[in-house]
Write a structure and sequence with these properties.
The protein has about 220 residues and is of the alpha+beta class. The chain folds into 2 domains: about 100 residues; about 110 residues, 2-Layer Sandwich (Alpha-Beta Plaits). It is built from 4 helices and 8 strands. It is rod-shaped, with a radius of gyration of 50 Å. About 15% of the residues are buried.
Length: about 220
């Protein structure tokens, strides 16, 4: 009797184990299927996240590139503006005779009596031709320079001018020389008014003019 009961117990246990094994066999594919789906979903989410991160990075790079281009252009414009300001400053310093200047030009040597009107006509002619800077007997002309007379002598900025007169002008040497020496030009008229006046014009490769006194 005991043996039979033991056999029954073993049979029941065997059946239970069989059912558990069968259930495991049925559940395992389902779990694998669920795990596979979740894995694919996670992978899809990761791919989507990477795509978005890549897009954000591209957008940030583009923004940084545009910002860099803006700053670079701004810097170039600033340098260009500074260069233009510096160029204009140098130009005005030359006009105001505040700086030493050198360049091609001409030398005009005159012997004989000249009136202040003759000097005014000659200097105005040089300026109209394009002279950038002028000196008379070493005196650099400024926008405020003026010719006058004192005791029969011509004065420039209160300084007496003695013969021979030496005028230096910076500019296009060929243009200045040709314009001054042309028939009917200012020098021709000055010489026609006085036979005592002798004029010589020489083109020079380099003319050096110091800053005006009091502006150095």
């Amino acid at each position: 009797m005991t043996q039979k009961r033991d056999q029954v117990v073993l049979l029941v246990v065997a059946l239970i184990l069989g059912l558990l094994v069968m259930r495991q066999l049925l559940v395992s594919p389902h779990l694998q299927k669920v795990s596979k789906i979740e894995e694919e979903q996670l992978l899809a989410l990761e791919v989507a996240r990477l795509i978005k991160a890549n897009a954000d990075l591209r957008e940030e790079i583009q923004t940084l590139g545009e910002t860099f281009s803006t700053y670079q252009k701004s810097l170039e414009n600033r340098k260009e503006a500074e260069g233009e300001v510096q160029k204009n400053l140098q130009k005005y310093q030359v006009i105001a005779a505040e700086s030493k200047v050198k360049g091609p030009g001409i030398e005009v040597d005159i012997e004989g009596p000249l009136s202040k009107e003759d000097f005014v006509d000659l200097i105005n002619a040089l300026k109209n031709i394009g002279a950038e800077a002028i000196s008379v007997n070493g005196i650099r002309l400024t926008p405020f320079s003026y010719f006058g007379s004192s005791q029969g002598q011509v004065v420039l900025d209160k300084k007496r001018l003695d013969q021979p007169y030496r005028i230096l002008a910076i500019g296009d040497s060929s243009l200045l020389a040709e314009a001054l020496q042309r028939k009917g030009g200012v020098l021709d008229l000055i010489q026609a008014a006085s036979k005592e006046v002798k004029v010589g014009v020489e083109k020079r490769e380099t003319v050096v003019l110091e800053a005006a006194e009091g502006r150095r």
